[in-house]
Write a structure and sequence with these properties.
Layout lengths: L1 E4 L6 E8 L12 H10 L6 H7 L3 E6 L3 E8 L4 H11 L7 H16 L3 H14 L10 H6 L2 H11 L5 E7 L3 H12 L29 E7 L5 H13 L7 E3 L7 E6 L6 H4 L3 H21 L1 H12 L8 H8 L3 H12 L7 E5 L1
Parallel strand pairs: 1-5
Antiparallel strand pairs: 2-4, 2-5, 3-4, 6-8, 6-9, 7-8
Family: Belongs to the peptidase M16 family.
InterPro entries: Metalloenz_LuxS/M16, MPP/UQCRC_Complex, Pept_M16_N
GO molecular function: metal ion binding
Length: 353
């Protein structure tokens, strides 16, 4: 748990993160966590959204690879409502087949709205890590076939005390807020959940390069704590400045992951000729700005801290800033060459859309 007091905050943020430990995606369960997110967000009586809106707030939920996150955004004095909502989220829900079918229809509409970047990221993860890289969105056939009892079993494994992280940000009394959250979660069982085996690095044999529109290149990184990850993100952000329309995709994680650069319509040929020496300082600046921008607003800061906290209890956003401060050009160049194809052992996986 992390409670941050921000005296002039215009809202109260309470974020709940539910780790994927013990409920990792498999071909047989692909999408059950996403389904769980949809149904849990409704509340035990299906009225959680309405209750929060009545209190002047709202709930935002999403499913990531490492966790499911539930963000409650309320007026500064809304701690009582936030705790009530938190207790509702972690309580037994009693899912029904009708609810599952209804949410599956909504998820089908969501899938139709996924952009090219999300699709490219999904494909890159699958090619890099196989079944260990299954997209958290899920498979709709698997989702529709999920029975209430199966989903409740997933919920019980996921919502054990050791699998949860809570971040509170607002004009709150730290001790009182800490006690209120602890009391709300006190009834949850404490189950021992083992961490899965670490993801292996992407297979270099699958690497290819192209310059067609709609291409994304993905480089495998060890995890947020690693200096290699800071170097790779800095390299990608620097390379994204050499042509119009390029974007960088990276979700902070304590686990191995991917940094992507590309565009749904752009041409990546410009990055092949880019020179690391001329972009080193810019890359460090952009990566540090990437971190600080996510810490500027209470909403994004709570989400950033929570998605790291749920992976490792001492993993903080500032670790990357420290790694960037000590980043050497040789480390940056090695990461840079992973995207451009000039590395002695290429690390980039090209995905064309």
């Amino acid at each position: 748990m992390l409670v941050e007091r921000t005296p002039n905050a215009k809202s109260l943020i309470v974020d709940l993160f539910v780790s994927s430990r013990g409920v990792e995606e498999t071909p047989q369960s692909h999408g059950q966590r996403h389904l769980l997110e949809h149904l849990v967000a409704l509340g035990a009586k299906g009225d959680l959204d309405r209750r929060l809106e009545t209190a002047g707030g709202f709930l935002r939920a999403r499913t990531l690879r490492d966790s499911i996150s539930f963000e409650m955004n309320l007026p500064p004095t809304g701690m009582k409502d936030a705790i009530s909502a938190l207790r509702d989220l972690v309580s037994e829900h009693g899912f029904t087949e009708a609810e599952i079918a209804h949410e599956a229809d909504i998820m089908e509409q969501e899938r139709a709205l996924r952009d090219a970047a999300a699709q490219a990221s999904s494909e890159a993860w699958g090619r890099a890590f196989g079944d260990r890289g299954l997209d958290p969105f899920g498979d709709l056939d698997t989702i529709r076939a999920t029975k209430p009892a199966i989903l409740e079993a997933v919920r019980k494994r996921a919502f054990s005390a050791g699998n949860l992280a809570v971040v509170v940000s607002g004009n709150v009394d730290i001790d009182a807020a800490t006690k209120a959250v602890a009391d709300a979660l006190a009834f949850l069982p404490v189950a021992k959940v083992s961490n899965p085996a670490p993801l292996a690095a992407a297979d270099a044999k699958s690497i290819a390069f192209g310059t067609s529109p709609g291409e994304f290149r993905a480089v495998s990184v060890p995890g947020y704590r690693s200096p290699d990850t800071a170097a790779t993100l800095a390299a990608a952000l620097a390379l994204a400045t050499v042509a119009e329309g390029l974007e960088v995709i990276y979700t902070p994680s304590g686990n191995r992951g991917l940094v992507l650069i590309g565009s749904p319509t752009g041409d990546l040929s410009a990055i092949n000729d880019a020179q690391a020496a001329s972009l080193f300082d810019l890359g460090r600046i952009l990566a540090a700005r990437w971190v600080r921008n996510r810490l500027y607003e209470p909403e994004t800061a709570a989400a950033f801290r929570g998605m790291l906290l749920v992976c490792e209890r001492d993993l903080k956003p500032e670790i990357m800033l420290e790694n960037l401060d000590s980043l050497q050009f040789a480390e940056f160049e090695r990461a840079f060459n992973g995207f451009t194809g000039r590395a002695s052992r290429p690390r980039a996986l090209a995905v064309k859309r």
